[in-house]
Amino acid sequence: MPDLIPNVGSGTLLERVLLADDRAIRVGAVHRLDYDRAVVITHDRWKAEVGGIPQYAFLLATAREVGNGGGDDDEVLLLRVEGTAPLSLERDQLAVREEALRDALSKKNDPSPSIVLDMDLDPFTKNRMSFTGLDCRIIGTFYEDIRDGHQVLDFGHDVDNFYATATYRVFKPIGDGLSALTSFIKPTDDFVQMVRIGTVRYSSTRRRAILAKQSSVPVKVNIQDFIGTKTGMFGMTRMGKSNTMKTIAARVFAVSEQRRLGGEPPIGQLIFDPQGEYANPNTQDGTHLAAIGVEHVVIYKFGADGSRRNVRPLGFNFFDPEQIQPVKDIISAELADASADYVKGFVLADFGGAPVVGETPEDAARRQARAERGRLLLYGALAKADFSVPTHIPEESGRLREWRAMVTMRAALADELERALGEGHIRRYPGNRVIGVERNSLIRVIDWIIERDEAGDLTGEALRGLQSFVSGDPWRSALPIYTQLSQNRRVSGFAKLKPARTYHSPAARVDYRNEIYGELLRGRIVIVDLHLGSEGATRRLSERLAEYLMYRQTAVFTSGSEPPDIQIAIEEAHNLFSTEKYRDELDVWVRMAKQASKLNIGMLYATQEVTGVDHQVLANTKNWVVAHLNNAKEVTELGRYYDFKAFNDAIISHEDRGYVRLKTMSSPFIVPVQIDRYGRALVDEARQAAGLLALDLVQE
Fold first, then answer.
1. pTM, whole model, 2 decimals?
2. Residue range 54-82: average pLDDT?
């Protein structure tokens, strides 16, 4: 008899990986087949023997004969069960059953349902009626290929040929075969690093999978997919988005440490934490990201006092001259809704006093002196607004000195001030004209200077010193803020500064943005704990940090160098990437979304609203993690991307924490996954990568 299907059964790699006896179990045959869909015929007994065939289960169909060898037409179709399908003789079988029931109803003395409906059919009829049809979508084709002289398993997203349906046998993958299938990535020349992300989960009900020991089949992903790309996490609150973020963060950290050991630059990770769930332990995980080690995880939070080595103050010391520029930016933002001239003057004033290229030393000294006097007035306004004045401030040597407002003042004016107020309000420094105003005397000293200027009762050198002191633009620009008077009219002044107290941290030693960027370059996980701040304050702080990060990465990129790898995790992405906001080219989050890839910034964003994220962001999202969503509008929008439309009903109905549909950049199809819970095992794995002991050994 001639060979009707030439060369089928050639490959052995397909056998070893997918179809070996311990990797796949025969469950039926193909009943009908076209290029997109297949109907599989199976039997109740066969389904029971393999632990059931739930909706969305993967099946394999092949015309190959195991072990034949030879040829190049060897392939396996990947099917996904999406429903049931009627068989050709099913109507006839139902007619036989109905006739038997009618006959029993007329003949039985007891016509109750338990007697009529539970009657025994003859074994032959019952067996014929146990065949059922499964409606399956054809996801694609597994086949063998040669790359660089090596045989590899490849995958195509279609069917390039098919044979008579009676030729195909259908298998349910199990164990290592199922793991190989769900962890499959297309062959690539790029670096690949597979890590476990969870286990295969087809359905909300897991009883049969557990009984059949098929509930713990691992799913692996290429962690490199998440580095430098956009990852979207979609799902309702408490559906496991943050757990997934922590899991990915721990895996990326392990990769970063391996890079470090290999002499390559590490990967920094920045997590904006609006609820404090990343920075602090919780009962769900029994641990937290910071457990990876204080050397590797740094937490920035409002109110931190520096007593814990890896917990640092979030914000600025508003009374530190070295931090005056970001402080001025924050104050300007608080005054931004006021259109008065005094506000415009403040925004334009120079409180830093940095030298300007080309100016003489005398001009530079004059600029610095005027900036110091403006800062003195600003410090007084802050004190009036109930900002906490620090007791100490760090010096360049790292030691702390008592805080004073340092300002240049002529000796005659300083003498007059001490005669009027007494000693103890200022500190004189022999040999120069700089004095230090004591923290408890700020307002009293400033009030005396303002009163003398208004009264005009000084003479000689003291008068000339006063005129010089109050003549600079910084002093004049800060004066309405302090006095709440502008052109003889009452203004809000320092009262407008009170909301900015959230940003003030007396313990902050440097611009937190520069410090955070430095930690990211060192490969640290940086958690910005925002749960203690007001909504407005946390929003502006996050924007300023994102602005700074973009600025630094862009500077590296435009210099011709490769920017370092940095990962950013953000929540409530619908507030950042909405269609309305996406029209604003100046918005920092919009710019980051558009430029992140070329700047080597990977973004993990989480949201409850797919419709709240602009389609351009979604179209450029490489990895999708989709948990339970509770309305048709959201899943309909989701269904426009990849193959998620097939899962619409399940995404709405399955309210299981951590149960997601996962599509990664390297994986050619969507995989249903139960994400592993972030816990001690993952923490210990990350610690081991960093050369640290396991948590239990540390505690012992």
1. 0.79
2. 79
